[in-house]
Each structure stands twice: as C-alpha cells, then as structure tokens.
Amino acid sequence: MRAVIKRITTVEQREAVRTVLRRLRPVPKVDVPRFADRLHEFSAPYRLHLGCGNIKLAGFCNVDALETIAADAIDDIRTLGRFPDGSAREIYACHVLEHFGHDEVIPLLKRWYAVLQPGGVIRISVPDLDRIVRIYHKNWEHFQKPGNTPWIGLIYGGQSTPYDFHKTGFNANWLRHLLEQCGFEQCEEYPHEPHFVPGTVDASVANATFGEYFSLNMMARRPL
C-alpha cells in the first residue's frame, strides 16, 4: 500500500497529509481546578459584594450565582440563603439590580435590608437612565453613523449568559423611592471617583465613550 501511495502522490502531498494527521491527534486533558467555595474564610458581620462577576473586591465576600474567577461564594442574591438576617455590615451591588424584573426589585431590596445589620450601609450602582438620555442626545450624530450601536449593551445588557439581560431601569428619583419603600434611610448619591474601594475599576466609574459617567451610584443605611 505504501508503495502505491508513493507512486500516485508527491512528497509535498504526503507531508501535507502527515501535518493534518498530527493536528488530529488527541489533545492531552488538562485538569481544570474545581471551584473552591471560600465562605468559611469570612466571618460576620460580612462585607458582601453581590453579583461580583469577574471583579474581586478586597475585603469583601464576593458572591455570584455563577462560579466566576472572583466569586468566594455561590448564592442566589435574591434570597441570600447562605447569609442570616443581620449578618452583613455592608452590601455592594454594581450593575446588578437592572438584571431583575420590575416585580423582583422590591422583594430583593427587602431581603438585602434584612441581611444588613442595623446601621449597615448599602451601595448600589446601576445604569442611570437620566444620564444615558442626556449623553445620547448630546452625541446624536455619533449614533447615526454606520456601525455605531445605540448603546444596546448598556441599555439591554451584554446578553452573554441567561443572567446578563437588563429587565428594568432607574434614575435617582426612582431608586431612592424604592429604597425608602424598603425601609432604608439617608439615601443619597455618592461620587463616581475615587472608588470607595481604592484601586477598584468597575462599571460604577465607567465613562466611555464620551468621557461622561453613565452610572447612578447611591448609598443608603438601615436605621439603627
């Protein structure tokens, strides 16, 4: 058979076949480290970073529904079943709240309120509809040019996973109202920069493409 193949093929053709066959060889399996839950490394009262994604905040227990590279604990942040009432002194959720439906927001905020200890602080960052509308209007011509999307990711979510869809929106007046309905007090906006966790870069400080911040950053407290 080899003699026949040599007669009907060139050296170059045979080498090309060998190259293809080498590429088809099984790739050695690589052991991927399993997710290591690290909740046991933290103690109450917790500082919780909810919906952390791939951003790990130093000093916080980073919580997500998925086994991300930053997560310390996996939990449904709507219910926080792994965190008892009054077990957290601080909660931070950056560009998370908009991923829940209109009828989910109040129950979710009430649960976060319950997990906070009296006097605890909550910080929430969400896309700010007021800012987005203003920036969009100021840069109208930009969004009319071919290839420039109308900020569909910022408005509708990245849509890279089932969790990455935006289902509702906020401005300062509406978010303050919702927080107060859940019992929070001292609801006020806080500066985009510097980040309250030094060295952190996340959506709360983002200002691309036009050099203007498009997030609403609001903090509030659970009364003593």
TrEMBL record:
One Pfam family it belongs to: Methyltransf_11
GO molecular function, one term: S-adenosylmethionine-dependent methyltransferase activity
Keyword set includes Methyltransferase: yes
Biological process, per Gene Ontology: methylation
Classification via Gene3D superfamilies: Vaccinia Virus protein VP39 (3.40.50.150)
Record's keyword terms, sorted: Methyltransferase, Transferase
All copies of domain Methyltransferase type, residue ranges: 76-122
Protein name: Putative SAM-dependent methyltransferase
Species in which this protein is naturally found: Cupriavidus plantarum
Source taxonomy: Bacteria, Pseudomonadati, Pseudomonadota, Betaproteobacteria, Burkholderiales
